[in-house]
Amino acid sequence: MNPASVDARNRLIAAMRRLAQGERAALEEVYRATSAKLFGICYRILGDEKEAEDALQDVYLTLWRRADRYDPRRASPIAWLATFARNRAIDRLRTGKVRRGTVAEDEATQLADEAPLADAILIDAEREARVHTCLQSLDDAPRVAIRTAFFEGRTYTELAESMEVPLGTMKSWIRRGLAKLKTCMEAGE
Amino acid sequence: MTEDRILAAEYALGLLEGEELLAARAREASDTAFAADVGQWQDRLAPLADAIHPRLPRAEVWQRIEAQLSSNGGTANIVALQRSLRRWQWAGGLSAAAALILAFLALPQMLGSSEPAQGIAQGPTADQPILAANMPIEGTPLRLDFTYLPGEDSLLVGAVGLTADGVHDHEIWFVPPKGDLVSLGIVTPGKIVAHSVPNAVARALHDGSQLVLTREPLGGKPAGADAGPVVAEARFTTI
C-alpha cells in the first residue's frame, strides 16, 4: 500500500470507531469516503438506479445502528463495508420485492475477467489479494459461475438457467471451484 | 471440503435461496463455528468487489439518510448511550426487558386509581413551559409518566400500576447534551411522587430532553459503582 492509501484507511478506521460510539458526524465522513464504492456494488447487484439508492440508504442507516459490529482486527474497513453492502443488496433480491434490473447484463459480460480497478480509497493491499489469482486458476465454467454469483448475486437456480446446464451440474461446478479456491488461497494465507 | 464448509461458502457467496437460505441464516446466528467460516469466506471474496466501478450516488441519497437520522434521533442517541453504559454496566443474566417485567409486576387493580397530585401541581409561574414524557415499559402495557413543573422545580414521576420486585430499584437519569448523566432519583412503584430537580438540570430541560431508566440494586446506583443497564427511555414534549 502506498502512504496515501494507508492514511485513507486509517482515517476510515478512526471514523468507524467514532461511529461505533454514536458520533453522527462520523457517519457523514464514512459516507463521503465510501458511498461511491458501496453504491457501485449495490448498483452492480441490483441493476437499477432507484433500487440501488434505496439499498444504499438502508446500508448506511443500518451501519449507524450497528457500527459496533465492525471488528478492525478481522478485515479492512472498506472490505467489511463492501461485504455488508453486497449482503444487504442480495437480501433485497432474495426477499422478492426487487426484480433485478437488466442494465448490468451487458456490463456483466465485459466485466467477466476484468482486473481490479485503481481508485484512491480502494487501493488497498487487497488489490493484490490472492483471490484474483486463485480465481484465474479455475476452469472457465466454474470461474464464470462464481464471478457471476459474486457480481450479480445470482442463485444456483438462476446460474443454471442462464448458463443452460442442469442444476446438479451447476452445483458441482461451483462446489468444486470453491474447494479449489480455498486450497489455493490457504496456500497463500 | 465438508458439507458444512461448503454451505458456509455457498451462503457467503449468496447462492442460496428459499428454505436453504433461511436455514443458513439461522445457523449463522446460532453456530459460532459456522459463522466464523462464513466470515472467512466473506473476507476472502471481498477483494473481488475492487473490480466493481464506483458510482456516485445523487446528493439526494445523503439528504434522505440525514432526514431519517433526524427523525430517529432519539433511537440513535439511546443506542449510543447504551453502548457507553454497556462498558460499565452491572453483570446480569436476564435481558433488560425480562428483568424489568420481574421488577415491575403489574397490579391491574391499581390502574386508574392515580393519586391526586394537586398539592404540587399549582400553576407554574416560570416562563418555562410544562414538559411531559411517557416512558413505555417494553414488553408490558405499562409506562412511567413524567411531568416537569418549572415553577416548582419538580418532576412528577407516575409509576401507577407498577410494583417492586424487592430486589431491584430503577433510577431515573437526565441525559444532558454533554457530560455525565444526572440522577433524578429512584422510581417509587405504585405511586406518583414529586422529585426535586437540581438547578442545572432545570435550566437544561427543554422540549426533546431525554430521560433514561436504569436497573439498579435496592437503593439505587451505589456511589463509586457502575450504573446498571438502560431499560427504558423517554423524551419530553411541551404540553
Keywords:
heterodimer, A: 189 residues, mainly alpha, 2 domains, B: 239 residues, alpha+beta, five-stranded antiparallel β-sheet, four-stranded antiparallel β-sheet, 7 helices, 9 strands, 22% strand, elongated
Protein model, in words:
Chain A has 189 residues and is mainly alpha-helical. Chain A folds into 2 domains: 1-114, RNA polymerase sigma factor, region 2, helix turn helix motif (Rna Polymerase Sigma Factor, Chain: A, Orthogonal Bundle), CATH 1.10.1740; 129-189, Arc Repressor Mutant, subunit A. Chain A contains 9 helices and no strands. Chain A has helices at residues 3-20, 24-46, 49-66, 77-94, 104-111, 130-136, 140-152, 156-162, 167-188. The radius of gyration of chain A is 17 Å and the shape is globular. With 239 residues, chain B is an alpha+beta fold. Chain B folds into 2 domains: 3-51, no CATH class; 94-238, no CATH class. Helices cover 33% and strands 22% of the residues of chain B. Chain B has 7 helices and 9 strands, in the order ααααααββββββαβββ. In chain B, the strands form 2 sheets. Chain B has a 5-stranded antiparallel sheet, with no helix packed on it. In chain B, strands 5-4-7-8 form a 4-stranded antiparallel sheet, with helices on both faces. The relative contact order of chain B is 0.14. At the A-B interface, helix 2, helix 3, helix 4, helix 6 and helix 7 of A face helix 1, helix 3, helix 4 and helix 5 of B. Chain B: Keywords: Membrane, Transmembrane, Transmembrane helix. Chain B: Residues 94-223 form the Anti-sigma K factor RskA C-terminal domain.
